[in-house]
Each structure stands twice: as C-alpha cells, then as structure tokens.
Amino acid sequence: MSSIPTTALGLAEHGLPVLPLLANKRPFGLCRACEGLVCGGRPNMATPGPCACPWPCHGWAAATTNPSVLASPQWTVAWRRARTIGYHPGGAGVTIVDLDNAAAVDWARTNLPPTTTVGTTRGEHWVYRGTMRSMNAVRPGVDIKSLMSYARWLGPGTGTLAELPDVARALAEKKPTAVRPTPRAVTVPAPAGGGQCRHRSPAFLERGISMAERRITEAPSAVHATVYRTFLAVLSAHGRCGCLTEAHIGRLFIAAQAKGESPRHCEVAWSNAATALGM
C-alpha cells in the first residue's frame, strides 16, 4: 500500500492539487508566521494572495501540484502528521456534489445525470467536469465542493465523468433564505454580587461581536466547526451577564449563513454551545 505522501505525489502528477489533512478531515491551521493573515495571505479568496509561506497552512489555497513543494522539508513534516489527503476540486476543474445520506443519494439518482461516483462513509460524492461556487446545505444532505473548497481523496470512483449539469449550478444560485434569527433568549443568573456587568460597555461588546463575525467570515474551511466554536466563545464571554440581544445573535447567524450554513444549522450550533456551557 502506498504511503500518504507517495499517493499525494502521484495524484499531483495527474493534475490534482493536493494538501495534507489532519484527523477529522481538518486542514492545517495557519502557522505562527501567518496567524491573523499578517503574511498577506487570503485563504478565503480565489487566490492565496502574496503569501509565500512554505507551510501547507492556508486551507484549500495551499493545495498544489508542484512536486518541489510537496517534497519540501516543511511539507514532509506535515505529511508525517497527516491522516489523509485532501484536494481542491475547483483547482482540478471539477465539482463535487457531496451527498451525505441515503435520501440525498436517492434525490441525485432522480435529478442528476450519471457521472463518476465515489463512496463515502455516509453517502456518495458525484464528481462532474466544470467548476462553480461552493456552498453548504444547498438542499437537505447536499453540499457543493468546487472553487474555494477542499474535499477528502477517497479514490478514483466508478463511472464516466460527465459535464456539470445546470441543475447542480442552480442549487448554488438560489436566493439565500431570509435571515430570521430565532434563538431563544439566553436566561442565566445575574452577575455574582449584583454589580454592574463589565460587558455593558458598548465598545467592549461591539468588539467581541465584530471579532466573532470576522472569524466566521474568514473561515477557509471546516465552517460547521468554526461556527460552533465561535458561538461557544461568544456565549462563554457574554452569555452569563445578559449582554446579548437578538440583534447581536442575528449578526452571528447572518455571518454563518453567508458562509453557507442553514438557519437550522445555526440554531442547532447555538443550542449545542449553550448546552455545553450549562446554560
């Protein structure tokens, strides 16, 4: 059986931009030199920007077919930590219709033309020739992975690669659902001692919400996990003193939905974060 770096190099030779993934399909986080994007890199944009970082730390934008980069000392270290191989579908000129469950697979068999199909742990990847914008939850159990996204390499699959159909493109072109924040008010005890809440400062609270919005907006990948962790951080800092209003929560939901999260996913993530903190 080929090793992960050997397999990755072979895929790159066939034009597939690859990157190492950690456990749970996570890409490597930004290295210290690139934290806060001080390097100038922009992993959530169409190109990595001027960043010349030698590490594979810009999510999907780090994916490459360059054999010198793949075999560099920094990437060699990363491959040793990697658990699987990721690739940038858009960079390879393809789009993946990611079907997460049996119902989604049934929908695809009825509505999409046959193409190369790859089995996953929960469903199937249907791969088409052509690129489009990536978006999560375009319909129940269906994500689109193409430009500015990455997917796990699960093998070449079976079937003949077909052209990306209009019905798939239309999934990401539908108008976004109107944002109607509906999280329940966070009911928590008053601050100990009954003193004035330090978060009442408008500047302090505004800075915290703005940072949370930016963290979600700039997430290059793993959007579900980023949204949950951000909600958790906001509730941890502001949820026990009565600072948060529906307007603040709505801003976070809007940022998450702009990254492709559904209103339902937002509500579940918020509820799970509150539960994790005992609220």
Structure explained in plain terms:
This protein is of the alpha+beta class. Helices cover 36% and strands 13% of the residues. It contains nine helices and nine strands. The strands form two sheets. Strands 3, 4, 5, 6, 7 and 9 form a six-stranded mixed sheet that branches. Strands 1-2-8 form a three-stranded antiparallel sheet. Residues 175-196 have low confidence and may be disordered.
Strand content: 5-15%
Query: Helical percent range?
Result: 25-40%
Number of helical stretches of at least 4 residues:
9
Radius of gyration: 21 Å
List the helices and strands in order: HEHHEEHEEEEEEHHHHH
Mean pLDDT score, rounded?
A: 82
- For the secondary structure, the number of strands is 9
Find the structural class using helix and strand composition.
alpha+beta
Low-confidence stretches: 175-196
How can the largest sheet be summarized? Answer: 6 strands, mixed
**Span between N and C termini?**
49 Å
| Envelope shape | globular
SSE layout:
Layout: H1 4-13, E1 18-21, H2 67-70, H3 73-81, E2 84-87, E3 94-99, H4 102-111, E4 116-119, E5 124-129, E6 135-139, E7 142-145, E8 151-152, E9 162-163, H5 166-173, H6 202-217, H7 223-238, H8 246-258, H9 263-276
Parallel strand pairs: 5-9
Antiparallel strand pairs: 1-2, 2-8, 3-5, 3-7, 4-5, 6-7
Helix pairs in contact: 6-7, 6-8, 7-9
